[in-house]
Batch of 2 targets.
Target 1
Amino acid sequence: MARVTIKDVARRAGVSFQTVSLVLNHPEKVARSTREMVGATMRELDFVPSLAARSLRKKPSRSIACVFSVGAQPYDDVTGMMQETYQGIVLQTFAHVTDRHGYTLVHRRWNAGEPDGLSRITSLVSEARVDGMVVLADRRDDPLIASLRAKSVPFFVFGLDVPEASFAMRAERDAVRQIVGYLVRTGCKAICFYKGERDGRHLPAVADRLSGYREALAAAGLRPRDDLVVPCDWSSESGYRTTLRLLRRAPRPDAIVAANDRVAFGVLKALHEQGVRVPDEISVVGFDNLVQCAYTVPRLTSIEVPTLEMVEFAVTTLIEMIEGVRAPHDPAQKLYPGRLVVRDSTRPFAEARR
Amino acid sequence: MARVTIKDVARRAGVSFQTVSLVLNHPEKVARSTREMVGATMRELDFVPSLAARSLRKKPSRSIACVFSVGAQPYDDVTGMMQETYQGIVLQTFAHVTDRHGYTLVHRRWNAGEPDGLSRITSLVSEARVDGMVVLADRRDDPLIASLRAKSVPFFVFGLDVPEASFAMRAERDAVRQIVGYLVRTGCKAICFYKGERDGRHLPAVADRLSGYREALAAAGLRPRDDLVVPCDWSSESGYRTTLRLLRRAPRPDAIVAANDRVAFGVLKALHEQGVRVPDEISVVGFDNLVQCAYTVPRLTSIEVPTLEMVEFAVTTLIEMIEGVRAPHDPAQKLYPGRLVVRDSTRPFAEARR
């Protein structure tokens, strides 16, 4: 049922897929006998070159676009946006990896609320300025994803699991289970979870993370409490203010799981100002493991995400689709487990003897 | 002596420069009488359409490239590079601003040590994939700048003053003079300066900053001491280690001016670990004013750089060059003064009465 790919042709013809690609794109560079044999195999297998492979025959741009969905609401806080550290890291990593693959990176923001927003993005492909796209979206029903799918454009979703699409994402539920499980083993019972949302937009991962949080509590026999799930956006400022509010409540929680490291930096600051000892009174855990975690007071426990590996996988997969080596209907999907990096903002636990 | 521009033609002909541009690029859209009149004015002024204006007649890409020079040595520390916060901010700001101007951002790294590196970058222009380039270079003699100049490609240098080129840069010397002047007025005398260099590469601004440092000391009647000018790279780790080494020396300095905020974060951490009180014993000042400065313990005094304004100026100027409104030999150059943001890592001073 699966579409016949260049790989299938190559396997049957007993040549490399690069040779098949050459036959398609630069037949003049291939010996006539090989050309004829590969051509016969293509006919035999009823092979139809993909859109991508055909566009290679015109002129590949050797460019891929990295498109950040900025949601239906325009992002009004420009400074906040510019200093969105994790996005900056992802973007720089894509630049580095595409470069190493001999591709050029085109970067666009995509705002579903903007008139012509969608056509401005897809025109990058229709005008052959990019060969494929990496999409960083908030929602599985992002119209850009639907549009790329309808147009058979090679695309890859980064950071979100979209059925039948190629994607790389963190195993968010598992990561939070790890964090909460660790906190429980250090004796924490009232574990506060900062959600990561703003103006109705939330991190794509929030639902998964909440599940992980609830599962870990259940596994420890702890009752989930709605008052411990706290709204908070992704900024240090929000982490700071949310924590000041939280401290006015009684009883206080004994741990805070922040939506990301930047939020956790604000949490630490608020606790320090209020004279709350970390981790003796309250433990704090971040998310992303930014370099900066090693320099806070106290140093921040966080969960490491293999961003470079994820980007490598995204770029490699996308290039396979662009070059016709991977069929569009054969998505490559990977979940990346996080690695908890324990520092000084959480307590050690007495390891049970085994 | 200056090259005749579209603007000159428009002024003489008494029409808008958009009309002149239309005559050049879409003459069919202009009334015949206007076309003939503008044409006569062009001949009269001996006007030669610029390369950019001529390329508009083909097909503008409506794209600009943002090229980061990564120096002659390849950057081996990928994680460090990815988390290069200031570069991430600059890149995201360019993406935001080019977007608002209806342009697409292409991002490349350029490594002078790589074979074909230069031609891989300039081919973006020769293949008409971008209309112009913003270059973030370390050195005024960066071969990319010379090459773009030789090819009459519209380009803009960001963060470095290159004679006869359009550029935006921070007034580095002035910024350090402000910082050191402030420290002196708070009673500091042994002011340590962390240089910002690595493997022979240094921040383009280092020489300017050193001048500012020495001028401020001289103005205060303080003797410059070579042992207070300390090598350090741009990472928190380097700030941390350099400070630990520094503290083993006697006598200790009473202030540290870090190469950037990330370095300062490492400085604060080392001082905290060693029980040195900030600012009572040692004052610390960063550079860039990252959001994070408000959340360190103590909060970090730093110097704010108007990145958004600088990027706006870069993109606007480059588009003027691309569209032929600004002649290549009429560079737009701006120095941006920093604004010192005093927080808790430096002491207040008693303002002298005037």
Note: The longest strand of chain A covers residues 63-69.
Target 2
Amino acid sequence: MSASVDAGDVKRHKWWGWGLDDVAFNWRNKPGFAPLADEKIGLDLRTMPDPVEPDLADFPVPATRLDPAHRAAIVHVVGEANLRDDDEYRVVHSFGRSLPDLFRVRHGDFTRLVDAIVYPGDEDEVAAVLRLVIEHDLVLIPYGGGSCISGSLTPDISEQRPILSMNLGRMDRVLEIDDTSGLARVQAGVYGPDLEEQLNAEGWTMGHFPDSFTYSTVGGWAATRSSGMQSDKYGDIEQIVRGLRMVHPDGVVRTKAIPGRDAGPSVHEMVLGSEGRLGIITECTVQVHRIAPVRQVIAYMYPDWEHGIRGMHAISRSEVKPTFTRLSDGPETRFSLALVKEPSSTKGKVAAKVQDGLFAYLRSKGWDTTEEMCISYVCFEGSKERVEREKAIVKKIVSRNGGITLGAGPGAVYDQKKFDTPYLRDFLLNYQVFGDVCETGASWSTLNEVHSKVYDAYYRSRKEAGGPGFMFCHMSHSYHGGACLYFTFAFPYTSDETALEEYYGAKNAVQQTFVDIGSGVSHHHGVGVEHRPWMEQDLGETGARMIRGLFADNDPGRNLNPGKVLEP
Amino acid sequence: MSASVDAGDVKRHKWWGWGLDDVAFNWRNKPGFAPLADEKIGLDLRTMPDPVEPDLADFPVPATRLDPAHRAAIVHVVGEANLRDDDEYRVVHSFGRSLPDLFRVRHGDFTRLVDAIVYPGDEDEVAAVLRLVIEHDLVLIPYGGGSCISGSLTPDISEQRPILSMNLGRMDRVLEIDDTSGLARVQAGVYGPDLEEQLNAEGWTMGHFPDSFTYSTVGGWAATRSSGMQSDKYGDIEQIVRGLRMVHPDGVVRTKAIPGRDAGPSVHEMVLGSEGRLGIITECTVQVHRIAPVRQVIAYMYPDWEHGIRGMHAISRSEVKPTFTRLSDGPETRFSLALVKEPSSTKGKVAAKVQDGLFAYLRSKGWDTTEEMCISYVCFEGSKERVEREKAIVKKIVSRNGGITLGAGPGAVYDQKKFDTPYLRDFLLNYQVFGDVCETGASWSTLNEVHSKVYDAYYRSRKEAGGPGFMFCHMSHSYHGGACLYFTFAFPYTSDETALEEYYGAKNAVQQTFVDIGSGVSHHHGVGVEHRPWMEQDLGETGARMIRGLFADNDPGRNLNPGKVLEP
């Protein structure tokens, strides 16, 4: 089947940051935000001048290293319209949206860019380009939605060979839905919203909604082992992607979408998470579900983190199966409240008054509503009967663990703004402030230890750096054996020259704590280069040796996204 | 920790067949069995002499090829008591319980036996033995419960190097239970019943009950990607085993029992299903669950297979989450009824009358109660409220799909005798009859096609062979995207000389049909050598190349269970 769009039509981030050109975080309509920023990291927004957007014309862009003969050979495969090597495209495809990438791209650190971007229209074109890559000893980096925050799509600055970025965005179709089996064959380059739109039109959903949803693709999710916020019900991408096709240097790998994968070591699970080092994923067969008749997000409040975690654990051990369960800790709850817009309608003003009254009441009961109180959201889906029954059970569990039910109002607000968070990092960078995230999977019995030790490590690192810092955290993605802890941190950096060193000081403190306790190096952000330093500790020496052997065996020339996941 | 038992205390099969010496299938107390055997495969049990058990003394056993110096080196590691090279032990450890293995062992086909059996007491001993194996170019085959029906523990008759079988049976302890996380660290050599006993004592269950439960181990389940009959609730072994330790030629591989495995290609999923080719699994961290307060197995009857499958599919799409769902087709239902014991109690006689009356009523409604009617079992676990609610929903679904609810009586009978089936194959071999099983995972949309085409292929192969045959099937292990179809077949072979050729005529017809339709080469019986011929078709050429590369990279000397899963 021919691709539905040309290269020029494929959605892309603004060159210097997340998402659309004309969308940005607005602090002025959120009265709680500026005071919190001032208190926690000394950022006084009211005295700051309006930020100026970076201009690509200010920065020199090095010439492409792609040989004209090689360029012609690739154009022969995909057509002239589907190879791009103009400056903006090369910049956009050379940086993911990790904090270091955002910092570097804004500062025009274009030491090594990809040399061209190829937009194949089908699997045959992917295979033909891959053959050229091997034959001419080029480097190939797959590109999905460009939202990777672990550096997996960023070229190695020491790479001397010409580097191609392969944007799968033209391969964006749902090819087939098997209604009986609840399975859909989907091209790897389809973005989240396009995928859901095509599925929804037939009454289906895949239910995979990572924060990056608007700027990420099925192939990217599979290649980096993504998890969506609704994974409690729909599963992580490893559960959702049942079969796939990947163009490998020696041919096409295809894994069957059948239950009970019982044929030796899992090729499927070698490809998932391979981040382009084994080949290019071109198609996935994914589980799809009928859109639930009823969906509700209910908000709850606990007096503190320990009570909240006990509640979350009790829900996971109950007979209730929510779509998602999420608990913000005290600092994150305060941050969330600081993001609430100033009410403009009468209804909104009344609601704000009601909230003030509630918080006063809670304080009278001994709650610390500023620093300790924890908000929680639970999403229920299914028949009306099921949603009502499960809500009643969860309400009891929350109450038994010292919490109260706030209701559907705040839940609906949370649900609507869930994809807006990534814009905040660009906003903070305008003011020389780093805001970033680190997450890990940990067992239920170690969640509190991870939580407190990560805080300790972060604030110790900030103290050593001599500057302020702010951290908050939520628990999400509940499993039988544990859950994900998702930390967000922010601090002002002191100078452009030392900025990345300051960033890694904080980031590394957090990551090393994860690994020291035995929790995961990453829960769903992949490895790339940002998490690579901990892979040997995470996998152990022999596990790392197995992965290295896998890469060396399948890509002896190191042409496929070399250096990602593990060095060499 | 030191091993709790010596080699001599480790449970083992009788040398020539399944399980205990004094347990055998008894047809005389089952009035329906002999007539069915006569009708379907021309076996008239009433005219047959009583079978004579084979005697090991009748068969010459070749001398061990293990060099005395190597033997001494191994004894130095594990102690004299924990290396066995007497005839019976060597025979027991040289054959799994596949049909070809059972046939060969009964006939004393001892061309190539393992040369010694080593029983390590801990992981260090496993590692020390593995080093000796590599150093002296020996061959090592791991041995769990010896119930493998795909030939994975059977030595290659052309192997010239000395062959060690490593029996993990001394490593049989639950080491630690993390109550909060619902995770237990378990040594790989623990048998199913011993494991459940240790877990039950603390109020936990793993919920993994394959047919082979009494003669299989955690390590064996992990190494062959086992599924238990309760996988709808508890998951296949891939979901249950969250972390593991494996002794690899270069060190110990350990995978962490954390949720959200997001660190590159999955080492964990390379080890699962590796059948000894990458190393020896010594420990698993498994999900455990509190024993459900209420458990009920309810039986249902459908007029035919198509109605039954529609019912099963509707249950899988409902909000009910049973512990297992199972549907026997018409022939298997008839077979099950033929296994019912003659009632001796008054209560039993009344129940039989009630059943006769019910079947007469169903015939009056147009049901074919002999050939078409399909029995189904659904297991419900949880609180009383949940079990009652789910039973009510399933009852409605069954009714809507043309079936009726029989109730808890037949369900309880099914539940009690579920581990007895393996004895039947030995019984049939006494009369020169092969009885065996083939199973596959298939999508919901192809289940009926697989079902009818496998029947066609099997009966065509029997017709070509010129002899009678009987086949029946059930559906079990329900997933979002599909289910397992489990076929049983039987036929009398004509002579010892042609027996295995006749066997493969039937088996291959079934297996090739699986692969031609695109369903799995095996759902949960592993690959070994019996399913190896279809692996290349199942994985595709490039997938097979990846697996071969994995084995070659990690075991370049081919010392670890060589030839299993894939040749070379």
Note: The CA atoms of residues 242 and 257 of chain A lie 5 Å apart.
